[in-house]
């Protein structure tokens, strides 16, 4: 049983170090993509402060399709190159957006969202999807989030059976 709530961390780095350990534990000896993405979205949603949506879009038939997530129902299909998610997918670069209302082409799914981070998921040079996290707080995400969420996605990429996708 995982105890997730009511833990105080002395720094964002300490928080993420612990999350990476939790994530390793959750995915231990499990390679099923849906199961692992579902658990990781729940882990992040219930531990990260000041977020309103966290989830995955999978790359399928040349577009991004909604995958496991936590939060309000969201738009299902996103074209590569469109919105923050599609931009991360197209560029292969993590997008840290301090104010989504100033991001040209941002796709509003939850009206509470003010800032967002999207990490591309790449396996052996091929796009598999993106991890998307939304916050109601402006400039919620910074370079520490970028670094650790990139590390988390690298762990997910190592751990899941992408060849089954
Ligand atoms: N805002 C995203 C769309 C996905 S939702 O935030 C869940 C975007 O612009 O790509």
TrEMBL record:
Domain of life: Bacteria
Organism expressing this protein natively: Vallitalea pronyensis
A GO term from the CC aspect: cytosol
Entry's family note: Belongs to the free Met sulfoxide reductase family.
Ranges for domain GAF: 49-156
SUPFAM superfamilies attached to this UniProt entry: GAF domain-like
Any one GO molecular-function label of the UniProt entry: L-methionine-(R)-S-oxide reductase activity
Endpoints of the signal sequence: none
Pfam families in the cross-refs: GAF_2
Protein name: GAF domain-containing protein
């Amino acid at each position: 049983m995982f105890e997730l709530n009511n833990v105080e961390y002395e720094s964002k780095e300490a928080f993420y170090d612990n999350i990476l350990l939790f994530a390793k534990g959750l995915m231990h000896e499990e390679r099923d993509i849906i199961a692992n993405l579902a658990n990781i979205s729940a882990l992040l949603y219930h531990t990260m402060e000041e977020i309103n949506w966290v989830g995955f879009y999978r790359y399928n038939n040349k577009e991004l399709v909604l995958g496991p997530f936590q939060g309000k129902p969201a738009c299902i299909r996103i074209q590569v190159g469109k919105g923050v998610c599609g931009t991360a997918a197209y560029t292969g670069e993590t997008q840290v957006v301090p104010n989504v209302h100033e991001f040209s082409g941002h796709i509003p799914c939850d009206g509470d969202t003010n800032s967002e981070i999207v990490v591309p998921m790449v396996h052996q040079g091929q796009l598999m999807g993106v991890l998307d996290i939304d916050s109601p707080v402006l400039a919620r995400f910074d370079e520490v989030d970028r670094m650790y969420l990139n590390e988390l996605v690298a762990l997910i990429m190592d751990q899941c059976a992408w060849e089954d996708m």
